[in-house]
Amino acid sequence: MKKTLIMLFAVSLGFGASVNAQEAKTDKIKFGIKAGANLTTLGKIGSGANEYKYDYQPGFTAGIFTEIPLGGQFKFVPEVNYSQKGAKVEGTVSGVTGKLETKIDYLDVPIAFSYEAAPRFNVFAGPQVSFLLSQKTEFYSNGEKLNETTDTKDFAKTIAGGVVGLGYDFTQNLNVTGRYMRDFQKGTTNDDENFGKAKNSGFALTLGYKF
Predict the structure, then answer these.
(1) For the chain, how big is the Rg over CA atoms in Å?
(2) 93 CB neighbour count, 10 Å cutoff
(3) Number of C-alpha atoms within 13 angstroms, CB side, residue 144?
(4) Residue 41 β-bridge partners
(5) pLDDT of res. 195
(6) Are 130 and 106 in contact (CB under 8 A)?
(7) How far apart are CA 176 and CA 196, in angstroms?
(8) Spatial distance between the Cα atoms of 88 and 103, rounded to a whole number of angstroms
(9) pLDDT value of position 141
């Protein structure tokens, strides 16, 4: 009986040490890299008496992030991401089908807070600031390319927005996140009322690795 108690005590000490080590490990600040895909749009655009809705445009995203424990189930998760956004719109007027396709590159800096709602499962939300890097807009008429421009004069250089999303940790290092992002400001500095509703919004799905 005495030997059994000693063995149980030793096992409990070992289990406690393992749990404490695990907790200490998860309480450390972690850095990570991520990559994935965006699916974004610019909302609506007007042209005379007509209003057209932008279709979604796929793009690439990649970046770095940090997880900083705040106590309990909360973490501070700032990121810096390269993000390809944009949209395309098509309409027919007087038998002529016109198409406009815009691709815009941003440096997104979301500053989110996450909460572990269940083991390995977390929700997050926070503000985001986007910095314009470049853009390319192409114009088509009846399927024929007419022109393209890379001028950023009429594009907002800095835009405030926000993100909300879900994340799942497959392991301590590998995770996947899905998010919805939306700008609070329009993506153009053009005062033309036809572009008054043009704001970046969309979804992103990324795979990340934490060190």
Answers:
(1) 24
(2) 10
(3) 4
(4) 201
(5) 59
(6) yes
(7) 35
(8) 9
(9) 87
In this prediction, residue 4 has a pLDDT band, given cuts at 50, 70 and 90, of: very low
Write down the residue that tokens 């499962």 correspond to: 121
Q: Which residue has the tokens 């005590």?
A: 9
Can you list the positions of beta strands (E) in 29-93? 30-47, 50-53, 55-71, 74-93
13 is a domain residue = no
CA distance 66 to 57: 28
Pairing of the two strands 50-53 and 30-47 = antiparallel
Give dist(CA 178, CA 24) in Å, integer: 27
Longest dimension (CA), the chain: 95
Tell me: the pLDDT tens digits for 154-194? 899 999 999 999 999 999 999 999 999 999 998 877 665 55
Find the domain containing 178 and state its range: 29-210
Q: Sorting pLDDT into bands at 50, 70 and 90, what band is 203?
A: very high
Q: Residue 154's domain is classified under what CATH number?
A: 2.40.160.20
The verdict on residue 7 lying in a domain is no
What total number of domains does the chain contain?
A: 1
**Does residue 10 belong to any structural domain of this protein?**
no
Let me know if residue 162 belongs to a domain: yes
Q: Hey, is 170 helix, strand or coil?
A: coil
What is the residue type of 21? A
What is the DSSP-derived secondary structure letter of residue 195?
G
Nearest 5 degrees, angle CA 40-CA 46-CA 52?
55
Helix (H, G, I), strand (E, B) or coil at 172: coil
